[in-house]
Design a protein that fits this description.
mainly alpha; 11 helices; about 0% strand
């Protein structure tokens, strides 16, 4: 908070200085000040909306410190102009910017912490510590509830440690965030298959094939589903399409999610 207040104070003095210079027609440095001001504005916007923020933060701080030095060391006498109204508007803008900085800072912190716990969870998954991976994944979700990969990882961990049924809501959350995530949809269909919910498995597979008709994995699972339901005629039709699609992708490595 102290850092934000410090930057806001610098911003207030900098904007005040810029207004004085740009409003003085006789000042020969108006063009130079305008150019530097636009550069400062660009870096400020980039620093606010860049992830991770550390990419643009050093340059932003350089401009902030330069402006501070300019303000402190400046001995130029500026003509007295009535800035009462401008100062009021400027104060309102600075208050709004303060809240904006706090909001963006909070979101950035949550995003970074979510990524930290997600990466930690992935490392646990690779070393076989599934329970720890699940716990780290749940913490990551608490920080950022809009990252579909967090839910997907937790779903896989739950399916391995607790039960397949407990993983299904997390797979559904992945699909709510990313409706056409083929990998998550196929994992969800497999979960329904393992819980003997053939009807929901077929519904998911049909959905995948509606937007990705050449998906070999979905078609192969649908063939098995139809055979289990003794719908041999439909299974034969799907199998023919599956065979054609398999030949289409044959020897085409790394082409599509197949």
């Amino acid at each position: 908070l102290i850092g934000y207040l410090f930057l806001l104070w610098i911003g207030y003095l900098t904007i005040q200085k810029i207004i004085f210079v740009l409003s003085d027609v006789s000042n020969n440095n108006r063009g130079l000040v305008l150019g530097v001001s636009l550069g400062l504005l660009g870096f400020s916007v980039a620093a606010m909306f860049s992830f991770p923020i550390r990419v643009y933060l050093p340059a932003f701080l350089v401009f902030a410190y330069l402006s501070l030095i300019s303000i402190v060391s400046s001995k130029q006498k500026v003509k007295e102009i009535s800035f009462k109204k401008i100062k009021k508007y400027l104060l309102v803008v600075m208050v709004i910017l303060g809240f904006l900085f706090l909001f963006i800072g909070n979101k950035s912190y949550n995003w970074l912490m979510g990524q930290h716990h997600y990466i930690t969870a992935l490392s646990y998954m690779k070393t076989g510590h599934i329970e720890s991976a699940k716990n780290e994944g749940l913490i990551a979700i608490n920080y950022n509830s809009w990252a579909q990969e967090y839910y997907h990882m937790v779903a896989k961990a739950l399916a391995s440690t607790v039960s397949v049924e407990s993983a299904i809501p997390y797979y559904k959350k992945v699909i709510d965030i990313s409706p056409f995530n083929t990998t998550a949809l196929l994992d969800l269909s497999l979960s329904y298959q393992l819980t003997d919910n053939i009807k929901m498995e077929r519904k998911v597979l049909d959905f995948v094939l509606r937007f990705d008709s050449k998906n070999v994995r979905a078609a192969s699972r649908l063939v098995v589903n139809l055979i289990d339901s003794m719908e041999y005629k439909s299974a034969n039709i799907v199998y023919k399409n599956l065979k054609n699609n398999f030949e289409y992708f044959k020897d085409r490595h790394n082409f599509g999610p197949y």
